[in-house]
Each structure stands twice: as C-alpha cells, then as structure tokens.
Amino acid sequence: MDEIRRWMSSFQRGECIIIKDLEELKESDPLEYRRLKPQNIRTALLCGRADRNHEQKCFYQGYHTSPEG
C-alpha cells in the first residue's frame, strides 16, 4: 500500500485525486504508475475516505476512461 500513500493523505483531507494523464506519473511517481499502468488506466478520478485513526483501511471509488473512450 505504500504506492497509494498520497491517496490516503488526500482522502483524509477530504480531497479527490485527479490523474489527467497517467504517463505524467511515470517519472514523478513511478510506484503509482506501475500500480495503475497494468490496469490500462489513462485518466482517473479517485474519491475516497481514509480512516481518521490511521488504521489500515482505505475506501475509495475510482472512475477511469477506457481505451475505447
């Protein structure tokens, strides 16, 4: 779960994650890139809720565009 640490801190602040172009993460966040690339994700909107007690819980819902559009 280390590669989604950024997601957890954003969710705890009530923020969403917007990935406009996954390829932009290739250099800046290679762990996140390697997690999402095999799923054929190009863009994504991730909104969620992390446990305020910092327990190993993460609930999120993501929307992404498929290669078909």
Outline type = globular
Summarize the amount of helix as a percent range.
25-40%
Q: Which regions have little confidence, pLDDT < 50, spanning 5+ residues?
A: none
User: Strand tally, please?
Assistant: 3
As a percent range, the share of strand residues is 15-25%
| Distance between the ends | 29 Å
Count of separate structural domains: 1
Helices and strands, in order, run as HEHHEE
Strand count, sense and barrel status of the largest sheet are: 3 strands, antiparallel
Provide a count of the helices: 3
Q: Order of strands side by side in the largest beta sheet?
A: 1-2-3
Output the radius of gyration. Answer: 12 Å
Short description:
With 69 residues, the protein is α+β, with helices and mostly antiparallel strands. The protein is built from 3 helices and 3 strands; from the N terminus they run αβααββ. It starts with a helix and ends in a 5-residue tail after the last strand.
